């Protein structure tokens, strides 16, 4: 009987409720939700990084293919740059072959057909040069210009013809606005002034 009275709380005092065991699990639950959110964000970023890496690799591969293709096209252009000109020259070679088959007569005279064939070839060559922007440099009678003329001889100039081209030994040519070959010429120069010779007679005695 005495034991029950000791364990019984005094009248008017309330017994404190025991703490709930389940209240301690609220904080770990929040941590788990944040962890899952961070993991999701990490996975999304990792996927984007992987996509960017693949994109960079594809662009690098495309650029390398472009570089190789451009280099190959440039090599082909340099290799076959003169193809059109050579093709046009073939018709000139054909006419040379036909002219070479023409035989002279018994007296050794060249037939008119041979001369006509040579003139045809000359015309074809001139047309070919003009087609490729090649034109002759001004020749006889033009002012001498060391940038387009190469003087290998000279002569005394007639009146008013100083420093002019007197004769052309080999034609020069332009290619567009550049000198393809200098013209080899003779130039008219001013005649040297005559110097009076001293009088060999002794001076008169005073």
Written overview of the protein:
Helix 3 runs antiparallel to helix 4. Among the domains are: 44 residues; 57 residues, Nucleotide Exchange Factor Grpe, Chain A, domain 2. With 206 residues, the chain is of the alpha+beta class. It has a three-stranded antiparallel beta sheet with strand order 1-4-5. A three-stranded mixed beta sheet has the order 2-6-3, with no helix packed on it. The model has no long low-confidence stretch (mean pLDDT 78). A hairpin with a 2-residue loop joins strand 4 and strand 5. The protein is built from four helices and six strands. The radius of gyration is 52 Å and the shape is elongated.
Name its key features.
alpha+beta; 3-stranded mixed β-sheet; 206 residues; 4 helices
The poorly predicted ranges are none
CATH class of the domain at 135-191: Mainly Beta
Rg over C-alpha atoms, rounded to the nearest angstrom: 52 Å
Number of helices: 4
Trace the largest sheet across and list its strands: 1-4-5
Average pLDDT taken over every residue: 78
Tell me the fraction of residues in β-strands, as a range. Answer: 15-25%
Major pleated sheet: 3 strands, antiparallel
Described by the principal axes of the CA atoms, the overall outline is elongated
Quote the CATH topology of the domain at 135-191: Nucleotide Exchange Factor Grpe, Chain A, domain 2
CATH architecture classification name of the domain at 135-191: Roll
Order of helices and strands: HHHHEEEEEE
Helix percentage: 40-55%
Instruction: Measure the end-to-end span.
Output: 189 Å
At the fourth CATH level, what is the homologous superfamily of the domain at 135-191?
Head domain of nucleotide exchange factor GrpE
Secondary structural class: alpha+beta
Q: Strand tally, please?
A: 6
């Amino acid at each position: 009987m005495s034991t029950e009275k000791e364990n019984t709380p005094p009248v008017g005092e309330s017994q404190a409720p025991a703490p709930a065991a389940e209240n301690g699990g609220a904080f770990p639950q929040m941590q788990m939700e944040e962890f899952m959110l961070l993991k999701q964000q990490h996975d999304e970023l990792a996927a984007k990084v992987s996509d960017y890496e693949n994109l960079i690799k594809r662009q690098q591969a495309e650029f390398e293919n472009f570089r190789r293709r451009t280099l190959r096209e440039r090599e082909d252009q340099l290799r076959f740059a003169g193809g059109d000109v050579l093709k046009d020259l073939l018709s000139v070679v054909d006419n040379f072959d036909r002219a070479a088959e023409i035989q002279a007569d018994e007296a050794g005279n060249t037939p008119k057909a041979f001369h006509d064939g040579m003139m045809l070839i000359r015309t074809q060559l001139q047309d070919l040069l003009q087609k490729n922007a090649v034109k002759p440099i001004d020749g006889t009678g033009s002012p001498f210009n060391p940038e387009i003329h190469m003087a290998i001889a000279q002569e005394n100039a007639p009146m008013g013809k100083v420093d002019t081209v007197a004769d052309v030994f080999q034609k020069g040519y332009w290619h567009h606005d550049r000198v393809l070959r200098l013209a080899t010429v003779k130039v008219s120069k001013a005649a040297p002034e005559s110097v009076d010779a001293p009088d060999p007679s002794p001076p008169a005695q005073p």
